[in-house]
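User: I'm curious whether this sequence folds into something compact or stays loose and floppy. Could you predict its structure so I can see for myself?
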Amino acid sequence: MTNKFCSFAASFAVLTLSVLLAGSAEAAPHPGTATSSLVSPQLGIYRSPLGFKVGSGTSGWAQAEPPKDNKFIATMYKAPQDPKNPKAEAGSLTVRIDQLDREMVLEKYVQRWMKEYPKYGFDVLGSTAFAQNKQKGYVLDLINRDSGRQLRQVVFVKKQAAVILTCRDQVAKFKDALKSCNQIIRTFEW
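Assistant: Here's the prediction. I'll summarize afterward.
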């Protein structure tokens, strides 16, 4: 009788302890829902329904709501405001998704857009293919002669979707912004 009582008491203690510890955990009722830490904006991670993810990593940039007037921008990251000049525009990185009519190879997608850049006031400073996390990508460095902004676009294509990560800032500040943007871009994984 004593062994049964000890076994029951031990089981009861484990159950009670489990309930108490579960109450202090930060889990959502269902992982992946809005209250789950998996999608918490504080973590700076965007997980796409298309299967890719990107995060702010160690950049120090914060994830922000995408512009409401652009349905192609899935998420964005913003540089911290300059305390010396709080009204100055901070650098940003947008994550754009283009749904394609058919499957397209990366190089063909990029070449199509490279022809269009001059029409929008952009000069292409350089471009090159690369590989990251077993995914082929393409990087383009651009400057807008009208607005004085510099951009780096990194493009990934898979099946019928293209993901374009665009880092932008004023030419004078772009070198500093690019360091943070590259940290974000390196987190991209499909």
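Summary: The first helix runs from residue 2 to 24. The two ends are 59 Å apart (CA to CA).
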